[in-house]
Amino acid sequence: MVIGIIGENCTGKSTLANQIKSSLGAEIITGKDFLRIAKSESEAKVMFKRKLENAVSGDNIIYVITEPEHINLLPEDAVRILVYADIDTIKERFKARMHGILPAPVAMMLEKKHGIFDNMPYDYRFDGVNGDAAALCEALKDKSLA
Fold first, then answer.
1. Is-contact 75 51, C-beta < 8 A?
2. How far, in Å, CA of 51 to CA of 35, rounded?
3. Which pTM was predicted?
4. CB 3.0-4.6 Å disulfide test: which of 19, 63, 67, 92 passes with 133?
């Protein structure tokens, strides 16, 4: 099964990916990590798409996506999970990553990007603050057995 975990920075995507990995067993690939597959970006994209297509009915792969253009790498049969959080939570989490300082330009960038995935299709919508990861993992297990 291929699981695309989609969302903005600091919404809880990586935490959810690790919980799903523990529950289902899966390889996690994040952002542009697929570029390590080949020397050129175009070749890496082709090889990565093939890897994901093969995994639809094989090994579990979780692809964590923060950039809208990477959604196109997911195969049609991938499970898409939108992870969301309110803008104040995102800013606080980003601030913590930046050792307690959130520069105004970064805050503006986060505000501008907030909601960029909201109108894209998804199979599950997961609250990155209060979501029940265990219940989502059970739903994914059921889906993989179907």
1. no
2. 13
3. 0.93
4. 19
